[in-house]
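User:
Hi there, any thoughts?
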Amino acid sequence: MSDVAAILTGMDRHDGARQRTERAAREHVAAFNAHDTARLLAGFTADARWATGQDVFVGTAALADVFDAGLWALDPALEVLSLVVGEDRAAAELRETLTFDGEVRTFTVAVFLDVDGDGLIRRGRVYREGSADLD
């Protein structure tokens, strides 16, 4: 194999990993926006860690309690403002809109995802601008 072919083969491998990571991030947002808990959980490894604020959830059973009917009752939606993707990591700036006590609220959110070789999220960290409290 020529040096150029070896470089291109390596680039293809890296590009494939980045595409897999981007698909995982975009599918997470799409499942969230569909309010589809089963679809959302299918995008996580069984032992995934999800941190939001001071709260940390480990495993899909714990995540099922996060992405539940109570959350969906707020009619949340995410809009991707920017997305930076590496081979197994993604960083996104999102706009989250939800309805609480009849009032539409909007937050800027930063999320950092680690994705495994199968394209599943193994770790996520979420940071919301301002307070995460809705009261």
